[in-house]
Amino acid sequence: MMSRERKLWIAFALVMLLSFGVLIYYGSEIYQQSPPVPDTVRTADGTVVFTGQDIMDGQNIWQSMGGQEVGSVWGHGAYVAPDWTADWLHREALFILDIFAEEEYGTGYKALSPEEQAVLKVRLQRELRTNTYEEESGTITISDTRLKAVDYLCGYYEGLFTDDPGFGKLRHDYAIPENSIRDKARMRKMNAFFFWATWATVTERPGSTVSYTHNWPADELVGNGPTRDLLAWSGVSIILLILCIGIMVFYHVRSGEEENVPAPETDPLLRQGITPSMLLVKKYFWIVSLLMILQMLLGIVTAHYGVEGGGLYGLPLDTILPYAVSRTWHTQLAIFWIATAWLATGLYIAPAVSGKDPKYQALGVNFLFVALLVIVLGSMAGQWLGVMQKMDLVSNFWFGHQGYEYVDLGRFWQIFLLIGLFLWLALMVRPLVPLLRAKTPERNLIIMFLISCTAIATFYAAGLMWGRQTNLAIAEYWRWWVVHLWVEGFFEVFATVVIAFLFVRLGLLKTRTATLNVLLATIVFMSGGVIGTFHHLYFSGTPTAVMALGATFSALEVVPLTLIGYEAYHNYKLSRAAGWLKDYKWPIYFMLAVAFWNFLGAGIFGFIINPPIALYYIQGLNTTPLHGHTALFGVYGMLGIGLMLFVLRSLYRNVTWNEKLLKLAFWSLNTGLLGMALLSLLPIGVWQALESIEHGMWFARSSELMQHPGMIALKWLRAVGDTIFGVGIIAVGVFVYQLTLQKRK
User: Fold this and answer.
1) What is the pTM of this model?
2) Which of 200, 234, 284, 389 is the most buried (most CB within 10 A)?
3) Average pLDDT over residues 596-621
């Protein structure tokens, strides 16, 4: 009979093979069915309005000023400025309706009766929704009426992004500095990109009554409303969620309790040798602590731009640190410090398992440290230069700001980071090869560890799959390979394996049990997680099948999180299994926090934005940073801190820890994050969602709503949670420096 372990390995291989097969197949469909970039946009008499090169250059110009860090396009990006596609679409609709009303009735649209308005809306929808793209000639033909609207909007956005004094208040509300775009020719091209991206939101696909973005954003003037497929697959996702939760609970009850392993009488790690390369890891944690504090400070500045768009308490900060830069650095540093904490943990564990360093291991650890510093500092400098418009478009792509959220760093820095990750992979593999050859009891766990390490190094390469002028729909597909699969996927597997390793090394789990648990957890997570990548792409110019798959499989991502309390309780029991485990109280408590935020941040707040019907109305609203903050920091950040504390506990075995400082850090971080979520991000997101449902996405992101006194009050309430949270960040940093600057005993 086939062993359970072998069955799980086969299941793991099948899940990965089938899931990535589906992901790649429908990726090819996205290539075929993405909104076409025309060779020319022209009027019926042949007048050229924009060229295809204008549109692609305009996309690069939008990226250079910050891209998704300044408002959003198709719902992806930042939240202070509007979604430019929703904003353009609504303003274009109103302008054309006024032209129609003046022609037909001699007055403005708003002065008409409901019956007269209804007639003009039908005419407007026929104007905007009819697909006039000719594949043979590569042209989009627009009417003279629409040309007038385009000219009006080009003037409007030119005034906003340059220095027209009439737009001063609006620039302040949107946290956009004067002369964000300093050249009128550049501005014309960026308007060409805005036109094309908006065209895709309302123009119906050939042979369909639905737009390229599945009728997103909602706007009743142009006939954009929820589609039949969107409603149907939302229902399927919820039914599937309930069904799979029932199956998961049944499986858990049937499998019984975890086996009880008597805890060792003394800490097994005290008998573990510490190699020279393991000692070098502590300087990685210095950088982790420094980047955490810097990221927190940038978060304060970034959040404050929402209430004072020109700076910080009267300081004109936007002249030297625009919102686009502060938010870029804030989000990028989150990835950098969390990844550094995890990578450093791997650098510690690999030689710890083998008990010795391969030749030049210490040199490799030092070289990687320097390389990471260069990448962090170099990419940040390049992003500042890009946003400040000090680079041409090609230089900006390579060394500046790519404009895509979480992968903003220039292509040169991406390649440099990829090389660094493969160096890290080599440093992981070399100490473990002898153990693989020896076929130790931990062999399968080590194989899983190396698979996760290989995936971390390899899948970052997805960030190199788009070019400087790749169609936005295709770039979005590959971007989410990095953000979802790399950050949320394979790092999750890596963390699961590392935690299992730690508990095995502490003598609290049997190796076989840990291996089975890791394999099962990985299978369950990846069953939904890989294809679930598509739930980010519902409205990014993708075919209907992407919505169906994304809705179905992203529901599966939430299923294992419903039983997260069992994991938390199990870890809590382990922490009390022996007296010496009190030394590991705070590392394990941070693991308990990971379980809590996995349930709340990744589970509940994640599922809020998962079903297509929900995301249709709330994509790009503050419900997204609600999920982002509570999942990214609550899960991955807390885990990074917990892993760092595990390593430090092993390095500084006989040093008395500052328990009061760790207690302050733990409770400040968790209560502060909860306060940030419940006092500000959640109520703002709910308010916006209600307005989006009633009026449309354009209004939910408008200055009129976001500068409402009640909304401003909710933004200020975030300061309560942020302050408490900031105390926790500083406490972690102080603890790390206090501890690591002491002599080891």
Assistant:
1) 0.94
2) 200
3) 89
